[in-house]
Amino acid sequence: MQLPEKSYGRIELAVRKIIRMGHPTLRKVARPLSDSEILSDEIARLVSDMTDTLHDYGGIGLAAPQVNESVRLALIEIPSEGSRYGDLESLSLTVFVNPTVSILDSPCAGFWEGCLSVPGLRGWVERPQCVRVDYKDLELGEHSQEFSGFQATVIQHEFDHLDGVLYVDRIADMKQLLFEEEFERLAKLGNTVD
Predict the structure, then answer these.
(1) CA 158, 99, 35, 115: dihedral to nearest 10 degrees?
(2) Of 9, 51, 119, 163, which residue is least crowded by CB atoms under 10 Å?
(3) Which tens digit of pLDDT belongs to each residue from 9-60?
């Protein structure tokens, strides 16, 4: 993904602090961005900073509220291999502005989700596995794209942040919320959590 020409130079990283569960911004419904805001230098800088932050923290998605900016903007980048989630269907860095999600098929599947705003924990969350996202890009282009499987899960996880929802709110059985170290230890032993 290329930032608009008016974006700032990439001389040094601009990593922002990710706020954590308990911070009030994470529980607010984020406001939509106007077209003039989308085209502004401030939003170009925010996206640049969020990209640096995502890479520095080793995540695959980041919503603006996680860096204490209560606007409807998120970015997702899923590498095909080498992430903490294993080998996955990749998604190149994509910026979603004012996204809306529509469920296309209701069957759900579960994944052990983690979150940069809820560090050190993993929880089993079941979500619909086929969604459509309607969104704008940084040049006001309108897009409608379908996602399935793990990509659909990541989309819903990140866009939940725009509505003040954390993945821990979606865990049906709190026995399936674990410290990440315990999760990894059990996985190495070949155990599953029931």
Answers:
(1) 0
(2) 9
(3) 555 789 999 999 999 999 999 999 999 999 999 999 999 999 999 999 999 9
- Is residue 158 among the annotated active site residues? yes
Say which of 69, 77, 113, 158 is annotated catalytic.
158
- The answer to whether the beta carbons of residues 73 and 96 sit under 8 Å apart is yes
At residue 26, the pLDDT reads 98
**What pTM did the predictor assign?**
0.88
What Å distances lie between residue 14 and 45, 52, 54, CA to CA? 9, 6, 11
179: burial class by Cβ within 10 Å (0-12, 13-18, 19+)? exposed
The alpha carbon of residue 65 and the mean position of all alpha carbons in its chain are separated, in whole angstroms, by 10
DSSP annotation of 80: S
